[in-house]
Amino acid sequence: MPNPDRKPLLLDFEKPLAELETRIHQIRELAEENSVDVTDEIRKLEARSAQLRQEIFSSLSPMQRLQLARHPRRPSTLDYIQAISDEWIELHGDRRGGDDPALVGGIARIDGRPTVIIGHQKGRDTKDNIARNFGMAAPGGYRKALRLMEHADRFGMPIFTFIDTPGAWAGLEAEQLGQGEAIACNLREMFRLDVPIICTVIGEGGSGGALGIGVGERLLMLEHSVYTVATPEACAAILWKDSAKANLAAEALKITSWDLKNLGVLDQIVPEPIGGAHSNPLKAASILKQALLENLAELTQLTGQQRRELRYQKFRHIGVFTEIAA
Predict the structure, then answer these.
(1) By three-state DSSP, how is residue 187 classified?
(2) What is the Cα–Cα distance from 117 to 104, expressed in whole angstroms?
(3) Do 281 and 260 form a contact (C-beta atoms < 8 A)?
(4) Of 158, 83, 163, which is closest to residue 121 (Cα–Cα)?
(5) For the whole model, what pTM was predicted?
(6) GO CC annotation: what is one (predicted)?
(7) Whole-number Å distance between alpha carbons of 201 and 209
(8) Which of 71, 128, 191, 260 could disulfide-pair with 266, CB 3.0 to 4.6 Å?
(9) Residue 72 in contact with residue 124, Cβ under 8 Å?
(10) By the 8 A CB rule, do 85 and 91 touch?
């Protein structure tokens, strides 16, 4: 999990809250040094801090939620796996010549039940991000994911996928190795698996790179995560030839969990601690684990054929609209 002792990286909208908390800390230190009782003043300031935190994080714009989804301290796939599983064995390789560190997967035991967990993995710092290609998986990553999902289906283990990527790797080599084919194959094959599949957007869900491990009966999103066909910056550059209009694109794209819930794309919004998952990673993991187990309990009651049909109908209904005659 992210180290809570490390100095936090502040987003612009978090700075007023950080200044108030710094002020509280300074007053408390001065009071201790001079043996002055300022309990009432501290209590009032802490109440104001809690109120301010609530106000800030309950009225974020889509672009601000995207900033939270990309926060360097936001828990990653491996952080959540470490927090929610009793045992974890990472498996490597697509059995076709490579292993992609941008997409990790393996077998975990959660509350005694064997499961297969697959997810995008961003780095924690620049060096780690370069090693993991900023969470942008290559074709080998999606083929590795499919190999693990077929393993899960063969042995009757449910599948949890954690989505956190700006998109699939779009380099020349990725195209040469069949990026489009690898993602398309995953989409097709995930629809035929018998075991429960629960997909969760834990950070940034971008384009086909997200959808390549995003086909399941249930789609969950952490409260401050985003899910979009293209990043707002890319959308703005395409539509207006100006990436500075990303704020406008973020509004139009309907990328937040609340937007997608209203559109019927999303099944459940998983609440985050006030301040975002990075402010209390262990609590965020506990909330996520509970949501996963509750959904798994419901899906376990269905037959494999019922789960496949549920999966199929879920995606058939996305984007359905009704034309009203003039």
Answers:
(1) helix
(2) 8
(3) no
(4) 163
(5) 0.87
(6) acetyl-CoA carboxylase complex
(7) 12
(8) 260
(9) yes
(10) no
* Contact between residue 88 and residue 81 where contact means Cβ atoms under 8 Å apart: yes
Half-sphere exposure of 253 toward its Cβ, with a 13 Å CA cutoff? 28
Consecutive H or E run containing 178: none
In 166-222, at which residue ranges do the beta strands (DSSP E only) sit? 197-206, 218-222
Q: Cβ distance 116 to 151 under 8 Å?
A: yes
User: Whole-angstrom Cα distance, residue 220 to residue 257?
Assistant: 9
DSSP string, 105-158: EEEEEETTEEEEEEEE---SSHHHHHHTGGG---HHHHHHHHHHHHHHHHTT--
Determine the Cα–Cα distance for residues 145 and 138; give it in Å rounded to an integer. Answer: 11
Give the chain's residues under pLDDT 70: 1-8
What tokens does 135 get?
A: 């969470």
CA separation for the pair 83, 15 (Å, rounded): 29
H or E stretch covering 163: strand 159-165
In this prediction, residue 53 carries a pLDDT of 79
Amino acid, res. 11: L
Question: Residue 119: beta bridge partners?
Answer: 104, 162
Contact 167, 134 (CB under 8 A): no
Characterise 12 by phi-psi region: left (phi > 0), alpha (psi -120 to 50), beta (else).
alpha
pLDDT in tens, 77-88: 999 999 999 999
